[in-house]
Design brief:
This protein is mostly helical. It contains four helices and two strands. The two termini are 44 Å apart.
């Protein structure tokens, strides 16, 4: 559960950051040239530069994401376990079609427990 949850959180934040960068027109190659003074435009495609910048920012957010994922994993595991424990979808039978209850004795055969009641369709 942890690995899947962490992967979902990492991917969701990465996609969100990339979408925001594209929406607001962030140009990582231009930012590197302005702040560091190194011109990458001859070596790096602007889209790939933006992708690299998004990955770097996404990895920097790991200090927030990892504790959040670790803290929420037990609750998510209980939720997933609850869904996995279901025997499948519930089938609803109209009550007017039920005629009685049949007692199943199970493996004991002595009538003292071990069985279950079963609704019998009419």
């Amino acid at each position: 559960v942890f690995t899947v949850w962490w992967t979902v959180a990492w991917t969701a934040s990465g996609v969100g950051i990339y979408g925001a960068a594209e929406h607001f027109g962030v140009d990582v190659v231009k930012l590197v040239r302005e702040h560091i003074g190194y011109d990458l435009s001859a070596y790096v495609d602007p889209k790939m530069g933006n992708l690299a910048g998004v990955v770097a920012v996404n990895e920097a957010l790991e200090v927030v994401r990892l504790p959040l994922v670790v803290a929420t994993t037990p609750s998510l595991a209980r939720l997933v376990k609850g869904y996995a424990a279901c025997d499948g979808p519930t089938v609803h039978v109209p009550l007017k079609r039920l005629t009685g209850v049949r007692r199943s004795l199970g493996t004991l055969g002595n009538g003292r427990g071990g069985g279950h009641d079963e609704l019998v369709p009419g």
